[in-house]
Amino acid sequence: MADALPVFKYHPDPLATGSVETSDAVCFGCNGARGYIYTGPVYAEKFDDLSLCPWCIADGTAAQKFGASFGDTGTVDGISAKAREEIGSRTPSFTAWQQDRWLACCGDGAAFLGPAGAGELKRDFSGAVRAVREHLENGYGLEDEDLEEFFKGLRKDGDATAYVFRCLSCGNYLAYVDEA
Ligand SMILES: [Zn+2]
Ligand SMILES: [Zn+2]
């Protein structure tokens, strides 16, 4: 049996989101094969294809040893340096089409719940439907049938995907859409 995954405040279920997978791969951080490996983006100046286990992300080993960073809070205002550091250095990120970016609410980073298409939004993240529509309206300038069409075309593994977050304080859903 593999160990239980570390707890990530800002990415509560990285197995469900696909950012961590069961794997026999060896982690470059601890040289261990602990049963899980990170599949999301790693930004590290001097290293390509870093294979990292979730524990070496959680305890800061990956950040210290390789200068690796993960979640991008560069576009987010009004969160603490501590939250920025935790999301950037000790939280698994996720693979998006153009760029993963972290969303925030109530002065803190939000929890990433996963990539979603129209089906997942209806089934698993119905609370996020409004946030996605708002993003399509304000970010994409879509309305009425055009917005409906675009919304219906969202796919978890397709060319346009919604990335769903939830505020850790007020519980509101947040989302943005990214395209291939
Ligand atoms: Zn490791
Ligand atoms: Zn909030």
Mean pLDDT: 95
- Strand pairing plus helix content: what structural class? alpha+beta
With helices defined by DSSP (H or I, 4 residues minimum), what is the helix count?
7
Helix fraction, binned, reads: 25-40%
Largest sheet: 3 strands, antiparallel
The count of β-strands is 7
Poorly predicted sequence stretches spanning 5 or more consecutive residues: none
SSE string: HEEHHHEEEHHHEE
Beta-sheet strand percentage? 15-25%
Q: Which sequence of strands runs across the widest sheet?
A: 5-6-7
Radius of gyration: 17 Å
Bound molecules: zinc ion
End-to-end Cα distance, whole Å, is 38 Å
Taken from the alpha-carbon principal axes, the silhouette is: globular
